[in-house]
Amino acid sequence: METERNPADPAEYREPLGNGHSILLRRDALPLGTDALLLAGMLPYRPDDTALEIGAGTGAVSVLSALRGKFSRIDAVEIDPVLAALARRNAEDNRLSEVLHILQADARTLPATHAYHAVFMNPPYRAAGSGRPCRFHLADISRYERAGTIAQLCRAASDSLRKDGRLYVVYPAARLSALLSAFREAELSLRRLTQVSAFPDAPPALCLCTAAPGISDGGKAPAARITPPLFLHEKRGDKEDSPAARTLYLTGSLPGEWSRYD
Question: Which phi and psi angles does 9 have, rounded to 5°?
């Protein structure tokens, strides 16, 4: 996809989303990556339901979901004021302000409303202190757990979900155990797991996880559905996208076996 620089601010650029829509991004923040597209793609079409995004960043996943009519209302929470302002502009530029509402706030301080049918997040992948800080602040807070651990963010999600709601998360496969531990602490149970690899003989890089409320200490979690793995390419060295990836990039959704509502 071609990008368009903003002459008024060289740090900003636009990424086309198709059908005349685009997203405004910053060069000192994280780009629109495959993980965000996968998260947006795994979200089900539930046009009568409400959703919350935790850690919205530039608002890309919420914008994509709103453009596709996946929910009747999306509240997107972002702690950083620069990113929150950018997300608000993206909602306005794509004429989504009636559906997509941006809130600058710390998700850890949200009241326990248990109001949302769906919560989704693409949280920071690395623990604070686990690596070299990023050069730019906006990229650093999106990559490292500077503003909340995965356990704290899962607790915020649990406190926001209805009893029949679902949490959708994209997370690195290498930290899957940390995510599952965070689910347990937040009284959430894993309902579906998809591992994502670049090609069939590559190790999993990402996990797409769906969790549900309703498990407490000593309780028994319902069985989780483990889907077939999702490959972005059909073989090593293949530059063409796999059929599943092609469906994701063209339609914004994953094929049925990977995006079914569980």
Answer: -150, 100
Residue linked to tokens 């997107």: 76
State residue 107 phi and psi, 5-degree precision. -60, -25
**115 phi/psi in degrees, rounded to 5:** -105, -20
> H helices of the chain, where?
34-42, 60-67, 81-93, 137-143, 150-160, 176-185, 243-251, 256-259
CB-based burial label for 39 (10 Å; 0-12, 13-18, 19+): buried
DSSP state of 208: E
> How far is residue 203's CA from residue 96's CA, in Å, rounded to a whole number?
38
Inform me whether the pLDDT recorded for 250 exceeds 70. Answer: yes
Nearest CA to 125 out of 193, 196, 186, 175 is that of 175
- Joined together, the tokens standing for residue 52 give 């919350």
> Residue 242 gets which letter from DSSP?
P
**Distance between CA 66 and CA 77 in Å, rounded?**
15
3, 13 contact by CB (below 8 A): yes
**DSSP label at residue 229:** P
* Rounded-to-integer distance, Cα 6 and Cα 31, Å: 15
Q: How far is CA 231 from the centre of its chain?
A: 19
The confidence score (pLDDT) of residue 57 equals 93
Query: Do residues 76 and 56 touch, judged by C-beta distance below 8 A?
Result: yes
Q: What is the per-residue pLDDT across 179-234, written as a single tens digit (0 to 9) for each?
A: 999 999 999 999 999 999 999 999 999 999 999 998 655 566 678 899 999 999 99
What's the pLDDT tens digit per position in 29-49?
888 899 999 999 999 999 999
Cα–Cα distance for residue pair 236/140, rounded to 1 Å:
31
| Partners of 171 in the β-ladder | 207
Residue from 203, 56, 44 nearest 124 by CA: 56
